[in-house]
Amino acid sequence: MTGRLGAAALGFVVSALVGVAAARAQTQPPPLGDQPAQPAARPPAPAPVQPPRAQPPQAQPADDDAIDDPKVSRRLGTRIVVPPPPKPAAAPPPPKPRVTAAPPPAPPPAPVEPLPSEAPEGGAGATTLVRPYTPAAEAPFRPTLPRLKLALRRFDFVRIGASESPDGVAAPETFNSFSVDVYPVSSLVRVGLSTAFGWQSGTFVANGDYFATQSVSLGGQYGGLGRFVPFAEGFTGVGYMRRLQFDRTIPTAFWQFGADVGTEVYFARVGFVSFAIGYLRPVNGFAKRQQFTTVFVDTWSFKIGVGI
Fold it and tell me: Residue 161 sits in which domain range?
């Protein structure tokens, strides 16, 4: 309806303007001069009034929320309805653990090929051979050489006084001695100090002979055979010896000298057992009928001990 009224008003205005222009052309005086009079221009025919164009019917909105005014609809656009947020989806169940088979063992590494080395100047080329790895050899056993030893020695001696043998030779008498041997110097050369106490075999202090001595020794040893340390040494010493004769105690002097050859067998780095066999000459000196008399014997001795 509004469109039709606008079109009619527009046609009316155009017709009025055309009529005013024609009337003004007729009332205008001719131009001055000798110019020939121009025929008056014919007024233009009025433009035919176009009938208003029928507007197509506007489509009615399908829903109640649509805007019926087209201008307002073009300005505001289509109303947008925001849907409510979706509900959170339930968490999926945890995946089951996958059981995978153990990977196959890696193949052994390929052997290393020998690499050719650079040839020296003026010479033929040489080939460097790559040898397989071999573990280091175990270090050889290195014992700690002797520092202290406890030992027991057994040897034969003779009695003094009246002889009970038919040939008048003094009867033999066996002695045992216990010693503490200390080696302040112990390397290829060893020096030892030995304190010993000995007693007559089968008896002891109460009814037999006994002695006490202090000795010094000098010898050599070799520690390059692992658990076996062979040695050889010579020794000498002096001391006191008590003789028992006819229920009388006779104080006498005692000294000795000899040599030992043996070996020390190590069961640990600082522990060993010792075995030695040696030559021994014990000498017993005493006063007899206002003169000093000595008796001695050449004998073998056997000595065992333990030490560190």
Answer: 148-307
The pLDDT tens digits for 197-230 are 999 988 777 788 999 999 999 999 999 999 999 9
Direct distance between the N- and C-terminal alpha carbons of the chain, in angstroms, rounded to an integer: 135
Give the lowest-confidence range in 65-69, 117-121, 218-222: 117-121
Query: Distances from the Cα of 40 to the Cαs of 20, 25, 34, 132, in angstroms?
Result: 16, 8, 17, 130
User: CA 57, CA 54: separation in Å to the nearest integer?
Assistant: 9
Contact 218, 234 (CB under 8 A): yes
Rounded Cα distance between 173 and 81, Å, is: 134
pTM: 0.54
Residue 18 within a domain: no
Q: E strands within 17-144?
A: 115-116, 127-128
Q: Cα 285 to chain center, whole Å?
A: 71
CATH number at residue 164: 2.40.160.20
Looking up tokens 């080395």 gives: 117
Summarize pLDDT for 120-158 with one digit per residue, the tens. 555 555 666 667 777 777 788 889 999 999 999 999 998
Residue 273 lies in a domain: yes
What six digits make up the tokens of 45?
């025919």
